[in-house]
Design brief:
The complex is a heterodimer of chains A (326) and B (321).
Chain A lengths: L1 H27 L4 H9 L5 H11 L7 H13 L14 H36 L4 H15 L2 H15 L19 H38 L2 H8 L4 H38 L5 H10 L3 H29 L1 H5 L1
Chain B lengths: L22 H17 L2 H18 L1 H4 L30 H37 L1 H16 L2 H12 L4 H12 L1 H15 L2 H9 L3 H9 L4 H24 L10 H10 L9 H28 L19
Helix pairs in contact in B: 1-13, 2-4, 2-13, 4-5, 4-7, 4-8, 4-11, 5-8, 6-7, 7-11, 8-11, 9-10, 11-12, 11-13, 12-13
Classes of the chains: A mainly alpha (326), B mainly alpha (321).
């Protein structure tokens, strides 16, 4: 239990740090970006919206910075992110909620696929030391880790969409399509998701393979594996149920740490494929100087990453008694 | 126990290090050892050669590039020919010349961004380990916070407030988001050195903490510091390219990232000038692979477990924004 409480503590501290960064950055930056944004949208907003912005970004306000900070924290706790300037007068929450399902589906499906596939390949690579998977993997992984992810996405577009015409080059569904639960729409959504998903899987699978392989090499030298061999158990059973099963736990934690990078890859991929998710929205918000939307998205992405890290830590503590005992 | 919300494979403290050298000589010895190890490692040699190639191109860019990189002097969208090896952009600029000139800024960002981020990693990681107690606890928590905060969104937010930053904004953003990884790796290593006898004797001699850290502790961690620098340099190159691609750099800069930005901006893939995008990306990949290959070699020195009769292959997971 102590472990879980410590993890929750860390979750809250980091969350507070992210909110505070959001609060401080526009006030700290030279050239006062918030004031420039307000000037940009002057005349297009009604006085009430303008006032809300002044409070949120600390422009023309008589309150001290501490009063502003307390009020800001209160708004965040109540999910009050204000009005999206580029979609005036739609609230930020509403805009985010439209993009969220796209990103969650894409991220969820690709994470599951790349976890299953990566773990399997890593397991086999360690089982057959010096085999094809084991020899081919490190150099391939070195090269993939050095590729700009967005560039890989661009190449995918060029090869599969522009040259071969196999798949659409972007967006989440066909132009003029309606979002509903019909088969045509689902079919469209899947065809549009294949290329982004492929890009994300190729770039994220290496981490899974590598950690799994390194852990598995460790467990393979354990006595219980030797014991299983001596008993003459089927090799598949030793590989999966003895060595693999014990190697998989650290894999979860190891990847939780790399999650921030996976999210970055996801955002860039969405941008390249103009996929209607959070990443693309993020770029649009930046381009339109829609700071309230941008801040909210930064916070949402951070919360998602933190929650996933927390989940992995808690799962680990529940599954592995050694961690709980510490 | 120290605060440890995230498990990282920590480098094993080297058990059988010979009596450590100290002072300036130790720094020199550390680098000599790395040089020797690199030259005997095929992968590392390949990496160094690629890096040398790009360095030569960067230094002699004015001599190598046939045309000005920015002059819109030719017919737009020409395919590759003997006059224009990689064709021209839709503004009528020579793509090959842009590629050659772009090497400069890309390498410079890798070097300066990597050095600055490493300096901060070393400062936080080693200070934290050396001081121990409450300062260690606070610094560790800060390191872990920056480790899990998603780097790219944070970079985008800062760069957005800066309204398209130039070189130094990019470097700043890279340092802020890129130092925590190295600090986290350095701390356990520095901790394992902390109670060794030669440091105790330095303390008895009455040396200051700063002197001990710079001339006694750090020289014994040279190989890990170099590995962290290489990781940070790769991170800097990829991060800068990503931000510039998104239009958050200065679009007037000559770099591979801005080439990608303009190429994407003009839909180079759709209008039949794919080299405008393929070439700079391939160069970033080659440069990144070179850095990763050198890291491979350095890793074998910093981690004695990887040497020995049968060498275990190990690859660092390098953060890729």
């Amino acid at each position: 239990m102590a472990v879980i409480i410590r993890r929750v503590e860390f979750f809250l501290i980091t969350l507070w740090a992210a909110v505070t960064i959001n609060f401080i950055l526009p006030r700290m930056m030279p050239g006062n970006p918030a004031e420039a944004m307000m000037a940009h949208f002057q005349g297009r907003l009604n006085p009430a919206a303008l006032h809300a912005l002044e409070v949120a970004f600390g422009v023309n306000t008589k309150e001290t910075i501490w009063q502003q900070y307390v009020q800001y924290l209160g708004d965040i706790v109540h999910f009050k992110f204000g009005i999206s300037l580029s979609n005036f007068p739609v609230p930020v929450m509403h805009v985010v909620m439209q993009a969220l399902p796209w990103t969650l589906t894409l991220a969820g499906v690709t994470t599951v696929i790349s976890f299953l596939l990566g773990t399997l390949i890593g397991m086999i690579a360690a089982w057959r030391r010096g085999g094809i998977a084991d020899n081919l993997m490190p150099p391939v992984f070195v090269i993939i880790s050095a590729l700009p992810y967005f560039w890989l996405g661009l190449i995918c577009i060029y090869v599969f969409a522009v040259t071969l015409h196999w798949l659409p080059s972007g967006f989440g569904y066909d132009e003029g399509g309606n979002i509903n639960l019909s088969w045509t729409f689902i079919h469209q959504a899947i065809t549009h998701a294949i290329l982004p998903a492929l890009t994300i899987i190729v770039t994220s699978i290496g981490g899974w393979i590598l950690t799994m392989r390194n852990n598995m090499i460790g467990t393979l030298s354990e006595d219980y594996v030797r014991m299983a061999r001596a008993k003459g158990l089927h090799p598949m059973r030793i590989m999966i149920q003895y060595a693999g099963r014990n190697a998989i736990l650290p894999n979860i934690t190891g990847f939780a740490m790399a999650l921030g990078f996976v999210v970055s890859g996801l955002l860039l991929t969405e941008i390249v494929f103009t996929y209607p998710g959070v990443g693309y929205l993020f770029l649009q918000a930046v381009a339109a100087e829609d700071y309230p939307l941008m801040q909210a998205l930064f916070l949402f992405v951070t919360i998602a990453v933190l929650a996933a890290v927390l989940l992995a830590d808690v799962a680990n503590a529940l599954l592995d008694p050694r961690i709980r005992a510490r | 126990m120290a605060y440890q919300p995230i498990a990282i494979q920590e480098p094993a403290p080297s058990p059988a290090t010979p009596a450590p050298a100290t002072g300036r000589a130790a720094w020199a010895a550390g680098f000599v050892r790395i040089g020797a190890a690199l030259s005997s490692n095929r992968k590392a040699v390949a990496g160094v050669l690629i890096l040398l190639f790009f360095t030569v191109v960067a230094i002699f860019a004015p001599l190598i590039a046939p045309y000005s990189p920015s002059a819109e002097a030719f017919a737009p969208g020409m395919p590759p020919s003997s006059a224009h090896w990689l064709g021209t952009t839709s503004y009528g600029q020579d793509i090959f010349s842009q590629l050659v000139w772009g090497t400069r800024q890309t390498l410079l960002i890798g070097l300066i961004g990597g050095l600055a981020a490493t300096a901060l990693s070393v400062f936080v990681g080693v200070t934290s380990a050396y001081l121990g107690g409450m300062p260690d606890h606070v610094l560790s928590v800060i390191t872990d916070i920056f480790l899990v905060l998603p780097a790219l969104p944070l970079m985008i937010v800062i760069a957005a407030y800066e309204k398209g930053g130039g070189f130094w904004v990019l470097v700043g953003v890279i340092v802020i988001t890129g130092w925590s990884f190295g600090a986290r790796q350095l701390r356990p290593q520095a901790q394992s050195l902390r109670n060794r006898d030669f440091l105790e004797s330095a303390r008895v001699r009455g040396e200051t903490s700063a002197h001990i850290i710079v001339f006694e502790v750090l020289p014994n961690m040279v190989s890990l510091i170099v590995a962290i620098f290489l990781g940070a340099a790769l991170y800097a190159i990829l991060a800068a390219a990503g931000l510039q691609f998104l239009g958050l750099g200065n679009p007037e800069d000559q770099s591979w990232g801005t080439m990608l930005f303009w190429g994407q901006n003009q839909e180079a893939l759709m209008i039949g000038s794919p080299l405008w995008i393929i070439a700079p990306g391939a160069c970033i990949a080659a440069l990144g692979a070179a850095v990763a290959l050198i890291n491979y070699g350095v890793d074998e020195i910093s981690n004695p477990a990887l040497r020995g009769r049968k060498r275990k292959k190990k690859v660092y997971v390098v953060p890729n924004p």
